Amino acid sequence: MKLLLASASPRRRELLASVCEFEVVPSLFAEEDAGSAEVTVLKNARGKALDVLARFPEERVIGADTAVALGGVILGKPKDSSDAERMLRFLSGKTHSVFTGVCLADRNGIRETVVETKVLFKKLSKKTIKEYVLSGAPLDKAGAYGIQDGVVVKSYEGSYTNVMGLPMETVTEMLL
User: Which residues are tagged catalytic?
Assistant: First the structure.
């Protein structure tokens, strides 16, 4: 059985490549908002994994979905630069949660979970937000930031790789 990653995310590819060999088969599943961040990321991770498994039924498939949430508001990827600035202003100086749903599916069944990491943002100036958005770095990331960019995060509790989009401690356990 080959392992397939149901994602085109460069960060997920990089993270998974650090522990095993796999092939990338992007999912065609249309992500949905299912209410809470936890339910949404799990439903989307499962949908992605099952979509790819339906096309490759003899393989193992990992699907994942990540969302940033604060006070019941779910922040996905920004639509554009002004949306990214809005998200960064919203998160500035506050602690939020990053949820990643992970689903490992094969012909024997499904294993799935949601991992949460708490992230505290620095208090961001308008200038810092503007410069960060102009760099282009936040435009393809949930919540409009990347923890690996080293610009906006003051501290975190939990999995660093979860904030990047794939909680490797959990994925490694699931693959055993």
Answer: 65
